Amino acid sequence: MFKEILGLPVHAMVVHAVVVFVPLLAVLAIAYVGLPRWRHRLDWAVGILAVVAPVTAFVAVKSGEALADALVAKGFQGEILDQIFEHSRYGDILFRIAVPLGIVAILLLVATSDHPRVPQLPALVVPVLAVAVVALAIAALVYVYLTGHSGAEAVWGTTV
Question: What pTM was computed for the model?
Answer without folding.
Answer: 0.90
